[in-house]
Amino acid sequence: MSKRNLAVKRATCLLFACLFLVSAALTGCQSSSPNKEASSAPSGSSPAASQGDSAIDHSKPLTITVYDNAANYQGEQTGWYGKLLKDKFNITLNILAPQVAGDQLYKTRTAAGDLGDLLIIDNSQLEELIPAGLIMDITDKVKNTKYLSQYVDNHFKPFNAGFDKVNPDGKIYAMPTFEADTSPTTYSEDTPYSSPLMPWDYYKGVGAPKLNNLNDLLNVLKQMQQKYPKTPDGKTIVPITLWKDWDGGTGAMENVRWLSNWYGYEKPDGTTTIQLNAKGDIVPIIDDNSMYKKILQFLFTANQMGLVDPDSASQDWNKVAEKLTNKQVLLLWYSWQRGFYNTIERGKNGDGNVAVPIADTHLIQTSDAYYGNGRVFAIGSKAKDPDRIMEFLDWYVSPEGLRYYTNGFEGFNYERTPEGKFKLTEVGQTAFQKNTPVPDQYGGGGYQDGQSKINSMIMSDFVVDPDTGEFYNSNYWSSTIEANKTALTMDWQNTFGAKNATDYYLKNNMIDIVPNINTSLGSDSSDIKNERSQISDYVKNASWKMVFAKDQAEFDSLWAKMKTDVVGLGWNDVVAADTAKAQKIVKMRAEAMASK
């Protein structure tokens, strides 16, 4: 999984729902001339003015096959977003999700010479698919769009030029995902992407003890578990819950690698065998002093204490999301996970998940994804009606398209203020958590059920809406910031002496914000690719066994065996390849900081 994915896979992309902390002033908001395009209901809407409306025939239904690495759902897009696209473009999205169907899906479809019509794929896959002739050159098409064309020079061209080995002419084959329109060194969010988060009322209920290290965290989780074993409606509360279906091509246990960020180590994009810190130190994950091992040991110890959800090895992300919605989990570690439960109304009662810093942590956090975050949108070379796909993608980054994706319907989820800004409605504040029924005119069904299953964006919600001068992300609307001055927020601020979590970590020198680097890191040879696949499968399986080992002796034995066995699978070759990729990232980060 790539950085910021969230989503991001960074999950279900709860881009509108994570309501919690007062934000500092919005860094990097650039002034724009007003755009009076209003967000309208889908019925009767006309397509966005891209590609030249008169040249596109919408009379025939079009089903677009979407191969989507970010999706947690496979099948036809239905619900309100499905109706919106059907009414507006006469298209239906059929989503193919390797997170659901398995990694073999990619191999099978590429071998057949047709991955899909619209592709959301990793950078490394793009590097393979361009020379294989499976990606369409969209240079001319994107230049003739109304909205996408605005990002060609500053975003799309520099990114595609980085793939010079397979794209020597600098053609535009792909558009990176989750691009921000701030700057390459800005971090705009009020909470680091990965940091410890807990229910504030439960934490205070056991005395809110200071957390000096991971042992303190385990002890407070045990106290909370004992005092709050079940939800008010009788559901079991688990301190820590894990899930396997995001491990995919990460080469390791996904939950472990993200907790490594707490202590300053990340997995560089395109690599599987190493971790990297802000100083540029590169550490193989099987090193006895690696952060990967430290976090594995933490989770093993947690399981020995009865703190790890027994469903962890068998459940998928959707089951985890259900538990988060029900406030059944005591430790969260992705900032957007708050959106499953936190609301302004609950915040008024001091209820919600908040950052609880651990004194010995020193986080690593990449800046806004100005150039994207490790995945791309591309069009398959055999795509049916690529002009209609481009028309959809152009609308996807338009003010209207971004508002629908991030915030739902004007008049239902949000409304305009007298000052020309936006404000969440009472329904909009909880539409996701409650899966609020959507009016029939918008497609009916539950709001959460009908959200976009693409689960990825080209331009992110950290782009300024030209109609309001504020980010599309509703957390950072001035109206939301004001509404979030709740008992929860004020109590947290008074306790920690900071405006928000990011402010706290910066004030206390507990975070390194590093430039987000998104570029070609080179493609693997066939030998490296095979070795990487075998090593990845072994490390993931061994890691899960270690977390659930019966005792420390078995944990140590599994670790020692893994260290030996992966060498026989080509470990040294893959580490050398990954180290070269990481060194490129280190060099580009230094250059970005020097030009800041």
User: What would you call the quaternary organization?
Assistant: single chain
Strand order of the largest sheet: 2-3-1-4-12-5
Q: How would you sum up the global shape?
A: globular
Overall pLDDT score: 90
Count every helix, treating DSSP H or I runs of 4 or more residues as helices.
22
Strand content: 5-15%
Layout of helices and strands:
Layout: E1 62-68, E2 75-76, H1 79-89, E3 91-96, H2 98-101, H3 104-111, E4 118-122, H4 123-129, H5 139-143, H6 152-161, E5 174-176, E6 194-199, H7 200-205, H8 214-227, H9 254-259, E7 274-276, E8 282-284, H10 291-304, H11 317-325, E9 332-334, H12 344-348, E10 353-355, E11 363-366, E12 375-379, H13 386-396, H14 399-407, E13 414-416, E14 422-424, H15 426-434, H16 447-450, E15 464-465, E16 470-471, H17 478-483, H18 487-496, H19 501-507, E17 511-514, H20 526-547, H21 552-568, H22 571-594
Parallel strand pairs: 1-3, 1-4, 11-17
Antiparallel strand pairs: 2-3, 4-12, 5-12, 6-9, 6-10, 7-8, 13-14, 15-16
Helix pairs in contact: 20-21, 20-22
Characteristic terms for this protein:
D-Maltodextrin-Binding Protein, domain 2; 596 residues; disordered N terminus; 22 helices; alpha+beta
